Amino acid sequence: MSSPNLQEVHDFLVDLAYGAGKVIVSANPQDLDQDTKLNSVDLVTECDKAVEAMVFSALSEKFPDVSFMGEETYKPGMTLGPEPTFIVDPIDGTTNFVHGFPNACISLGLAINYVPVVGVVYNPFQDLLFAGIKGQGSYMIRAGGPKRSLPLSSNPAALHKLDTALVGFECGSDRTGPNYELKVDMFRKLTASKEDGGHMVHATRALGSAALNICAVAAGQMDIYWEGGCWAWDVCAGWCILTEAGGRMVGGNPGDWDPAIECRKYLCVRGAPSGQEMLIEEFWSAMGGRKLVCRRVHAVLRELGTEVEEVTIDLNTPRPDWYLKINPKGQVPTLVHDGKIITESDTIAQYLVDRQSSHLAKLASEEGGKAQREAYLAFVSQFSNIVQMPVMSAMFTGSEMTEEKSEKIFGDIVTTLEPQLSSAKPFFGGSEKLTLVEALVGPFLSTILNLTTPDFKFPANWQSLLQQKAPVFYKWASATANHESISFTWNQDLVANAIRQKVKK
Annotated binding site: which residue ranges? Predict the structure, then answer.
């Protein structure tokens, strides 16, 4: 497939954005039916769906060979490929739109080989357009006025420390679990006085739209913006606009200097003659990287909606006395419940699932519960033997994952695992929600699908070969790895470093 002409795409997207903007501003949100996607603060309206349908129809007619990914038509298991793909959010800032707050926009992006190459973001309520083309810069137009190159300042100031920065920060629609707790803790750390251990940033701002926040950074109106939990359609267009304005997009978790467009955790910094990396590293240092351990436990806690008192300790220092009093062996992760000390991530995860009936698994006392649990754990055991153990062996010994070894894994997946996944919708056993199976194997699936660090001796096309050789398994694995309860803990740099440490030992 040949790539479309980027200028032609840009011009068409700009016209399309203006046309869609007329539909958006003409709608009365008070008269529209509303649904919720995640919870009562994650809204979708008739207008979202109508605008996406209009955009899809126009793009399909003009560029029939270009793939399409849209927020309202996305289905679990859909993944972005290297082929040219339009990535669309019909209304970014739906909650603002519903409340009549004039910060909502249409976000139209084109990605090729996983890289945003054209971006158009239009806020029709303020008649404010942002656009960019890879290699050609980005610009802003307000109310039909002249094009203004981004950043708006022709001589942007250097970046300094967080205490001089205007920081974009959203609480998001997900209001439970470790990800939300991290956001709350980070807000305190960023805003608190230095005497109270904070960074005392200059100020924080929240526009209620990831795309508009990114464009504000591109324009130089914000210095830095942190986002966790959004999707490719929230960031694709803004990403192109930002980087063409000299800004930088990195991962929202510490150490991720080269994030994937679907990583769902982002940190962007405005263009500046100096100080970008310094500001990024200072922001990351405030996070501490502490949310990447116990990934199976966090997935289960997130799915159950269970609140726990979580304490993180530095594994590189001796265990503190207070910890050894409740856990003499000093093992992590550890759960203390009803006076019991429970260790090991998978054991804790299963213990939590055993405490209440949920979509993850039935209780053993329920009809079919025992048989279901046996089937779940049998599959997990087979997955471990067929996939996890040979892949981990190659990673931890630094040995090469040869074509012969890969073919053996792919063959065993097809003959043993795929028949058990034929009913996945998209999760194990025909479930539309995560099960205990995905909670236990999901973190490793995210590793084998996302880890691309070159010092691990895997074929460069290992993931694409997996998709080709075992498509049923790959579809299920992708749906699992991309699920928010699994993906929110993923960080390539920290996972890779942890594996390197084991290799050294």
Answer: 71, 89, 91-92, 234
Q: For residues 378 and 419, is the Cβ–Cβ distance under 8 A?
A: no
Residues 442 and 399 occupy one common structural domain? yes
Q: Same domain, yes or no, for 242 and 269?
A: yes
Asked if 347 and 373 sit in the same domain, the reply is no
Compute the distance between CA of residue 99 and CA of residue 304 in angstroms, rounded to an integer.
Answer: 31
DSSP code at position 451: -
Residues 6+ apart with CB under 8 A from 461: none
Extract the tokens encoding 172.
């998001």
Which residues are marked as active site?
71, 89, 91-92, 94, 234
Q: How many CB atoms lie within 10 A of CB 146?
A: 8
pLDDT tens per residue, range 82-138 = 899 999 999 999 889 888 899 999 999 999 999 999 999 999 999 999 999 999 999
**DSSP letter at 73?**
T
Say if 363 falls within a structural domain.
Answer: no
As for how many domains the chain has, the answer is 4
Q: Can you say which residues are annotated as belonging to the binding site for Mg(2+)?
A: 71, 89, 91-92, 234
Q: What residue has token string 């260790």?
A: 343
Q: Residue 390 to residues 96, 200, 407: CA-CA distances in angstroms?
A: 49, 48, 12
Tokens for 348? 């804790």
The label of the residue with tokens 């500001």 reads 279
What would the pLDDT profile of 171-198 be if each residue is shown by its tens digit? Answer: 766 655 456 667 777 888 888 888 887 8
Q: Is residue 430 part of a domain?
A: yes
Contacts of 114 (CB under 8 A, 6+ apart): 80, 82, 260, 261
The answer to whether 130 and 121 are in contact (CB under 8 A) is yes
- Cβ contact 452:309 at 8 Å: no
38 pLDDT exceeds 80? no
Q: What is the pLDDT of residues 270-312, one digit of tens each?
A: 999 999 999 999 898 887 544 445 678 878 887 887 766 666 6
385-391's contacts with Cβ under 8 Å and 24+ in sequence apart are: 386/412, 386/413, 386/416, 386/417, 387/413, 387/417, 387/444, 387/448, 388/441, 388/444, 391/448
In a shared domain, residues 392 and 269? no
Peptide bond into 333 cis (omega under 30): yes
Does 109 map to a domain? yes
Q: At 276, which CATH number?
A: 3.40.190.80
Could you tell me the CA-to-CA distances from 429 to 76, 160, 369, 423, 440 in Å, in that order?
15, 53, 13, 6, 15
pTM of the model: 0.61
- For residue 264, the enclosing domain spans 162-287
pLDDT higher than 60, residue 449: yes
Q: What are phi and psi of 418, to 5 degrees?
A: -60, -40
Residues 117 and 22 in one domain: yes
Specify the DSSP class assigned to residue 68: E
Cβ-based neighbours of 374, under 8 Å, separated by 6 or more: none
